[in-house]
Design a protein that fits this description.
By secondary structure, the chain is an alpha+beta fold. It has two helices and seven strands; from the N terminus they run αβββββββα. The protein has two domains: 41 residues; 107 residues, Pleckstrin-homology domain (PH domain)/Phosphotyrosine-binding domain (PTB) (PH-domain like, Roll), CATH 2.30.29.30. A seven-stranded antiparallel beta sheet has the order 4-3-2-1-7-6-5. β1 and β2 form a beta hairpin.
């Protein structure tokens, strides 16, 4: 059928494959950087960490949260996916608690962050029993989050 590849033949092939792999890695890196720039460019965005519920074993995920009129959209930082990973509707969202990061949290977070637990009011208006998400952010970002949560854009009519 053909002769086996000799070292003089496979070395150029390996070089081309290595170059192609390097180009793909650089392209992915540039795409992540451009995506992050685009997310933060329009304003109303803050860097924060997110994890689901009270599952202490789950890892914190770093991301960028964008404030919208009706919801907070959370995007993973190191992702190529253009859509948000989580969307927190402003309607019925309440802060259930606030705390400093625990020793276990400090493996993934820094000590200057504040951890808040957020949940959703039930249809009867009762407080939530368990948090839906935990968010970790700086004091300044927390102030912005609480202002966003408590404010209402002009002309918006909340329907209960």
């Amino acid at each position: 059928m053909g002769e086996p590849l000799s070292s003089t033949t496979w070395v150029p092939v390996a070089e081309w494959l290595l170059c192609a792999l390097l180009v793909l890695v650089l392209l992915a890196l540039v795409t992540v950087i451009v995506r992050r720039f685009a997310l933060e460019r329009g304003g109303g965005a803050v860097e924060c960490y997110l994890r689901s519920g009270t599952a202490r074993r789950r890892a914190w995920r770093i991301g960028c949260a964008r404030y919208g009129t009706e919801e907070l959209r959370w995007y993973r930082i190191f992702s190529l996916w253009p859509r948000p990973t989580a969307e927190l509707s402003r309607r019925g969202l309440v802060v259930m608690g606030r705390r400093a990061p625990t020793a276990e949290d400090l493996r993934e977070l820094t000590a200057d962050l504040v951890v808040i637990q957020v949940g959703r009011l039930s249809s009867s208006g009762a407080d939530p029993e368990r948090p839906e998400y935990e968010l970790a952010m700086t004091e300044g970002a927390l102030t912005g989050f609480l202002s966003w949560l408590e404010s209402m854009p002009p002309g918006t009519i909340w329907q209960s």
